[in-house]
Amino acid sequence: MLATHQVVLIDEFVSQIDGIDLKAIAEQCRTHPLHMVDVFCYDDRALCCSLCVSLDHRKCENIKSIDDITTCNDIFYGSLLEKIEHIKVVTQENLQTNHQEKETLRVGVEKTEDEASKFVDHIKRRLDNLFETFKKQLHMSRDEQNTKLNVRIRLLEQLVRNLEHWIKVSKKLKMMEAKHSYLCTSKPSSIRSKQVLKRSQI
Description:
The protein is mainly alpha-helical.
């Protein structure tokens, strides 16, 4: 194949899609200078003209014209550009959505924090009011119990004083009773003595 026509190394003409830099390729076929290079053989990875194809690439199955490749490139790059533009639009939309979600999150957190703070303040006020009410009721209960206990204490103290008084009275009565008993027992003896004395005088 090298003896019949010029072979171009594909690696020397790298392209993004087919590995061919079409601008760097000579327009005339070196094997057939009267013919333009207008075909690329993918099987042999070689550029050639239509005469080369009819003579040397009859068994090759994957052959495309340069115009078809260029058209494919244009279609590909056009489609690629559209896809890139679409990706850019989608990316910008996603970016905007993320910014909106971030802002929504910030506003939501601040709102939730403010509502939580107000709720806690409300709970504190309610607890303070409940505590004050509880203290008042507790003090009222204490005063009521103190009043009852004071009444009982005064009654018990009065009872103790009364008992002490009656104990003293009982002791005095007992002493008076003992004295009376003594007087009663000593009086008959004096009477008998007088009777004996009277009899002796008779």
